[in-house]
Amino acid sequence: MHCTRKHLLFDKSYFITFNQDSMNIGESTQHTKYSIPLKLQTEIDWKVSPENLFLEAFCINWKNELRYFYADHNVLLRVKNYLGGRVVFKRIDIFYKQIGKIETRSLSSIYTIQGFDDDKVYVCKELQKQKQHSNKLFQTEVETLKQLNHQNIIKLVEVFESDNSYLIVLEYLKGGSLSQCLKYCRLTLDEIEIILKQILETICYLHDKGFVHRDIKPDNILFCALGQFSNLKLIDFGISCKITDLEQDSQMNIGTPGYMAPEIINGSNNKKITQKIDVFSCGAILYYMLTGSRLISGINIQELYKNNKLYTLNNHLLQKIKAQNYRDLLSKMIHEDPDQRIDARQALNYLQLMKIPTKISLSTSLHCSQDPIQKIPSFKKLITKS
Q: What is Dmax (Cα atoms) for the chain?
């Protein structure tokens, strides 16, 4: 790709090339004059034609001096698409218009935007700079999403920064959240299995990649289309971290009360905080899907937090689960002791083994409906095989 630097007496042409860590600009593809690192500390500004709003140039800060590189509109769009999510852009208003508000959270506002170039709808997550931890939340979410590529994880499009806020552009999911779904409908066991399998597969992927989410809850599980449970996405990676960094935050109560593993709150019990905290959160979601009731509840945030801290697994909770297989699975996912709790891979293995067919063939079982169905082997034997 070609671009031009305009000077007082003459213009100079350059080639633009990319590698994994930088965008390089030079007089040839072999000789680089400007090497722009692909990281969130790099800011790219844009110049737009006032007549037709076409892109005219991109701008970099080179040794404390602004340098503009002019190119065809379509070339600049290709540059923008490649850099999306890798660096920070300025001036979101020249690319998108706001078309709707979704929600306002304590630390962020979320609204829909539409691209001027493609008319596609996206979601914008805006974090106000004056709010505490906004920069860390921004950096963590973007850096984490940059390293993840999974069908059940929301896609990062690009990021912007204004004078007052950080803005993360994400794919738009129009099917609503699992939280909204559970408010208005009771799921069948087949639907629960479809949802749970996707959540566990996503957690396995995250943990295999060395990450832990730390805030898995129904609000953070969105469906791509309304009523289609077979395609969901996990969102909100602002407090995620590397598994190797979990112990550094062992004194911080990170997560959402009601879905937090008790060891996060009970720092005094000397239980190591591991990636199994995501499994507990997933178990709390499973309990909600199976019973219609919260695993941990409270009349206010203080009571909810206290009940989360004092939570212990008991038979009264499990008796609400009618399906024996799910009761066995759940008992190992929501155990208060992380040493007694299974990991995500074991939970997924058991869920898949729950679908093992009987030894009797389908044709035989149709004619022998009174024959007993083979029972699934004991839970403990199953998870030790994983």
A: 94
Distance from C-alpha of 341 to C-alpha of 350, rounded to nearest angstrom: 13
How far, in Å, CA of 371 to CA of 290, rounded? 28
Task: Say whether both 288 and 337 belong to one domain.
Answer: yes
Q: Are residues 262 and 349 in the same domain?
A: yes
Q: Please write the tens of the pLDDT for every residue from 198-233.
A: 999 999 999 999 999 999 999 999 999 988 899 999
The whole-model pTM stands at 0.86
Give the tokens for residue 82: 């490649």
- Name the residues annotated as catalytic: 215
Is pLDDT at 360 greater than 70 in this prediction?
no
| Band of residue 373 on the pLDDT scale cut at 50, 70, 90 | very low
* 3-state SS assignment for residue 140: helix
Nearest of 111, 113, 135 to residue 125 by alpha carbon: 111
Burial of 333 (0-12, 13-18, 19+ CB in 10 A): buried
Q: Are strands 88-89 and 156-161 parallel, antiparallel or unpaired?
A: parallel
Question: How does the average pLDDT of the chain come out, rounded?
Answer: 87
Are 274 and 328 members of one domain? yes
Among 103, 93, 101, residue whose Cα is nearest residue 165: 93
pLDDT of residue 101: 84
Based on the fold, state whether residues 245 and 352 are members of the same structural domain.
Answer: yes
Contact by Cβ (8 Å): 383, 332: yes
274 contacts: CB under 8 Å, gap ≥ 6: 243, 246, 338
pLDDT digits (tens, 9 = 90+) for 289-333: 999 999 999 999 999 999 999 999 998 889 889 888 999 999 999
Checking if the pLDDT of 377 tops 50, the result is no
What is the rounded CA–CA span in Å between residue 197 and residue 191? Answer: 10
Among residues 68, 76, 77, the alpha carbon closest in space to that of 12 is found at: 68
Q: Do 117 and 247 fall within a single domain?
A: no
Angle at 310 between CA 315 and CA 220, to 5 degrees: 90
Run of H or E residues at 89: strand 88-89
Confidence (pLDDT) at 29:
84
